[in-house]
Amino acid sequence: MGYSDTLLKGQKAIVTGASAGIGEAIARHLAAAGAAVAVNYRSDPDSAKKIVEAIQAAGGEAVAIQADVSKEDAVKAMFAQALETFGTLDILVNNAGRQNDAPFTEMTAEQWRSVIDVNLTGPFLCAQEAARLFLKQGVREGVSRAAGKIIFISSVHEVIPWAGRVNYAASKGGIEQLMKSIAQELAPSKIRVNSIAPGAIKTDINRESWEKPEAEAELLKRIPAGRVGESDDIGKAAVWLASDESDYVNGTTLFIDGGMTLYPEFADGG
Ligand code: NAD
């Protein structure tokens, strides 16, 4: 995949929501860089199994672990299972996420909660479990300069408001301060915490906005780079953020959006 398979050698990772889309790519890329990967899934064991088998066929190490990240007991059980399998943990990628759109005045409290629970409370619960582990374990000499790495998969909507999706935008805006506050708290303990904010990446979550050529053309108006992103664009960045190559990077959001956050409407002078 273009980089050394020793970059994450000996490291163990959990990727949430990894049975599809961006999470799947992150799991594959971390494994290709040498990490053993727990492929978390909520409800699709067959897809998770296929990804585990593909990683193993490519010479990597992986295991599928079921858990709904919005449930505290399930998160604890997932970490216990990963620890039992791998013996230790070095990397958490908080990727699982969902949308449940509605105009603001019609959005039910249940619709609001369903997104906040998965996109904000889930990453909080997982990061907390990971941090507790990293603090206990400390730096593993010869494996990484950090005691652990936490990566949130946020969104350009941590800064771009999104009408009709206030639950999603609020969850991603919340991730920004969750990530930064944890980064500030844990940096002295050599735990690095950062986010990746994808722009439009071709996955199921936004299929209707890129599958038909007319829809894709509309979407491309907002992407100065002139293409819709691929999950691999995010997978590669996750490897870098998880590796010692980014050892001095703390509390940062890396926008991978083909320039979507550059206010492309102003390119002609506004
Ligand atoms: P996706 O729908 O393909 O994948 C989301 C994954 O999360 C699925 O595998 C789903 O099963 C899992 N998931 C949902 N609820 C879960 C739960 N309670 N517990 C465990 N897993 C759960 O979409 P994607 O585009 O791959 O999204 C991945 C992440 O990237 C999300 O956080 C999303 O908000 C973010 N993101 C995506 C885009 C994009 O353009 N695709 C842009 C910005 C941010």
Automatic annotation (TrEMBL):
Residues 11-204 form the Ketoreductase domain. GO terms for molecular function: oxidoreductase activity. InterPro entries: KR_dom, NAD(P)-bd_dom_sf, Sc_DH/Rdtase_CS, SDR_fam. Pfam families: adh_short_C2. Keywords: Oxidoreductase. CDD domains: GlcDH_SDR_c (cd05358). Belongs to the short-chain dehydrogenases/reductases (SDR) family. This is Glucose 1-dehydrogenase.
